[in-house]
Amino acid sequence: MNHRLRVASLATATALLGSGIAVVASAPAHAADVDVAVTSWTKSAQVGKNVTIKGTITDAEGDPVTTGIAGLARKVGNGDWQPVKDDQSPQTFRFTDKPTRATSYRVVYADQTGTQAYSSVQMHVKVHRAVGRPRLLPRKGALAGPVKPAYKHSRVVIQERAIGSGPWERVKVVKTNAKSRWVLRVPKKYMHYRAVVRASHGLAWTASPGTLVRPRDFR
């Protein structure tokens, strides 16, 4: 998707990207009519995993812009825009980052004249907890699973679903221990189980992969 950019002052670009941004000499022709095309970005990611933002910058004739600089900035919640990194090859930029909670990103282009900067449309990324697949503990007749990052003494909803494609139904709400793990005894019958963690602290609602429990799995 190609985003036509709005002209702003270099001071605006500096505020968005921070003082670490460096500008390459020799501004491109028709700098006031530069387009940033964000071609793809990761819309949802597990905490600690990379998100990727890719695109190109072209001038009014559609030619790649080879001077100036493209920078990535991020904002968490109602906080200020913070610089993440910059790219000395703005014509085809590729940025990666590892957000720890829901985060907004934007790409800014600045030329060397000190008069113009261009900011793309914001990109919003949802971030999920790592909720591990429930694991059967045969001797205890129980399921257990971890939640990351730290989720001590917090609520986890355990759901079950009969063999087939029926709806998930709540079994019980359990609490994690000091190591952010939960445990629940389950009956000796065929059933799928999963763990669900509600949205909190900037992290989205997350469900674990399902686990099939069979009577013969118990000891």
Q: What is the beta-strand fraction?
A: over 45%
What is the residue-mean pLDDT, rounded to a whole number?
A: 83
Helix/strand order, N-terminal first: EEHEEEEEEEEEEEEEEEEEE
Rg (C-alpha, Å): 24 Å
Number of helices: 1
Q: Percentage of helical residues?
A: under 10%
Question: What would you call the shape?
Answer: elongated
Number of strands: 20
Provide a compact summary of the structure.
The chain has 219 residues and is mainly beta. The protein has one helix at residues 10-17, and strands at residues 2-4, 6-8, 35-41, 44-46, 51-58, 69-76, 82-87, 92-97, 103-110, 117-119, 123-128, 130-131, 135-137, 142-148, 155-161, 169-175, 181-185, 191-197, 206-207, 211-213. 4% of the residues lie in helices and 47% in strands.
Keywords:
mainly beta, 219 residues, 5-stranded antiparallel β-sheet, disordered N terminus, 7-stranded mixed β-sheet
